[in-house]
Amino acid sequence: MTTTDTPLTKVLGAKTAKALAQHLDLHTAGDLIYHFPRRYDERGEHTDLRQLQVGEQVTVLAQVQGIGVKPMRARKGNMLEVTIGDGSGATLTCTFFNQAWRERELTRGRWGLFAGKVTEFRGKRQLNGPAYQLLKADATQDEAAEEIEEFAGALIPVYPAAQAVPTWVIAKCVRTLLDTFEPPPDPMPAPVRAKRNLVGIGTALREIHRPSSDAALYSAKHRLKWDEAFAVQLTLAQRRARAAAAPGTARPRRDDGLLARFDAGLPYELTEGQRQVGEEIAADLARAHPMHRLLQGEVGSGKTLVSVRAMLQVVDAGGQAALLAPTEVLATQHFRGISAQLGALGRAGELDGDPLGTQLTLVTGSLGAAARRAALAKVADGSAGIVVGTHALLYEGVEFADLGLVVVDEQHRFGVEQRDALRAKAARPPHVLVMTATPIPRTVAMTVYGDLETSVLSQLPRGRSPIASHVVPALEKPAYLDRAWKRVREEVQAGHQAYVVCPRIGDGPEADDGDAPPPETESARRPPLAVTEVLPALRDHHLKGLRIDMLHGRMPPEEKDAVMRRFAAGELDVLVATTVIEVGVDVPNSTVMIIMDADRFGVSQLHQLRGRVGRGSAPGVCLLHTEAVEGSAARERLDAVASTTDGFKLSEIDLEQRREGDVLGASQSGKHSHLRLLSLLRDEKLIKEARAEAAELVGDDPDLSRHPALAASVAALVDEDRAEYLEKG
């Protein structure tokens, strides 16, 4: 009998096993049995050729409709052209070079499976040298149906394949494997299986590959999706249980401390959302277990203010708070912003400081030696109640007197190594607040951030101005781009400032300061526009006479800081930058942003970027420059961004266009993943149910010691690296 651990060499032979290993990273029977079909063709319901897209790797069930051999013009030899169709009226041309002998088997009327990449030549779609599997010659419809049934069952599975290993080869391998496969004992607890109406694991694995009916296929998919969701949610439930049991230090709120004085001095009222989230965080901080909370909020919803109030509560309770930003630019920006908010309360010990206040300190790698020593001394002796810096705060000899709260800006999530570093900074694990301005769909929050309690700020503070967004189709309407530059001049003449954002720094093939542009299928596109290319064009032509400078991640820290200072002080009219300005940069006088090659950015990233304008009393405008043609996927993405400022709606669109395996961490380790079927968009109900079951089971059996088979299954589906990814927070 064959088990999941059996090497494929023992099941399929050395040659086939080598091909599967080399091209698809499949090595064991378990790897192959969990290599699920990505779709199914139904017998008698052939693939509609009209739906095929140029660039797709496809497998179609089609009939030979015409065949001919002709000499090639540019070189010696001949070309065999075979026209195939599926009854929908659409056709594909299959071309074979110097293989005229195939004419003997590819006869008119013959049905077969054809696999290859769809290309286009002179307006006709074609497959160049496709692999194919023919059904019996001269087969009647019933005989053809029988052969398809024999070949792959009533529903024909179409597998993720490689050119060297087409889908029907995989199907044959799976069929050979199933003949001797002995499924493992079902790891799912019987009460859960009965309650959720789940078929057995053996049935599910057989039916996913060779479904006997649509209903059986649905049940198989449901069971295997459940396994994936349950494994992830059990991992997160165990993480939550460990966090809840960990000893921490309570930091209760005081009615007569810095927080109360800070609130009394605010020149505006907190929004209802800020008050509510503030109460949730205050209650967490008052408990003797570390808080692990995710704070989501639209750009400009006031997350930083919420975090400042939490930090003051911890300082009131005798502890210290650290705010970690992903870059020095943002750390410096936070330091300035919080300094302004705290005023004298953050300058204890200085001439104009409040003696009952605390000290706010900035620690970055670019500090001079003397300034760094002074800052670290304040951190070590506890006089610095609030410390702002990058992740370097966790290392490099930085010692805290009593670290009570870590605030992480922009979801820079901690893994095992960082958590250990945090624990080393405090006698007990500190409270952790993770902030993000990227709206996260509920299912992603439940799955990726499932070990964190979640708070959402949906209201914008009073006084924030609306942002209008428009697509600027540069190829179709060049005059629109000219008008965009005129709009920048008009805003500057009105006393405002502007951003011009580019996807690339320049002088190299890199995308930007670390974020790759979304994948596109369009070929022969020019490289994305770069800061170093756009800046001189603006200075010399489009925006000649305005005060313009640039900002990007490869500039020395002191240069970046100087540019940001000048822009914030109004000494620059236009800042040409990469996505280094995406988060945290707050210049209320900026009212217009032009994003060059906007189709090279993701939806959520565009939403983040435009949040940099309209932060004051004047309305903001974001212009999305693109050469993407109307009707293309890239253009539809930009139209969606222009149509709404609802970040959560846009986050759903963004998720649709990303590989969900990336969201689940499947690409993080580069290892083979068994998380394949679960959809974070379509399976919200299932994920919720799995979360509830996981919480109940872990509450009763925290280490799954009474469910060893389930524990092993979870380990297989969510391996150690992926578990670490999911545990980050």
UniProtKB/TrEMBL annotation:
Domain annotation Helicase C-terminal: ranges: 480-656
Entry's Gene Ontology BP terms: DNA repair
Residue intervals of the Helicase ATP-binding domain: 284-457
SMART domains listed in its UniProt record: DEXDc, HELICc
Record flagged with keyword Hydrolase: yes
Recorded GO MF terms: ATP binding; DNA binding; DNA helicase activity; hydrolase activity
InterPro entries: DEAD/DEAH_box_helicase_dom, Helicase_ATP-bd, Helicase_C-like, NA-bd_OB-fold, P-loop_NTPase, RecG/Mfd, RecG_dom3_C, RecG_wedge
Pfam families the UniProt entry points to: DEAD, Helicase_C, RecG_dom3_C, RecG_wedge
Region (Disordered): 504-526
Keywords: ATP-binding, DNA damage, DNA repair, DNA-binding, Helicase, Hydrolase, Nucleotide-binding
Keyword flag DNA damage: yes
PANTHER family reported in the protein's UniProt record: ATP-DEPENDENT DNA HELICASE HOMOLOG RECG, CHLOROPLASTIC (PTHR47964)
Protein name: Probable DNA 3'-5' helicase RecG
Organism this protein belongs to: Actinoplanes teichomyceticus
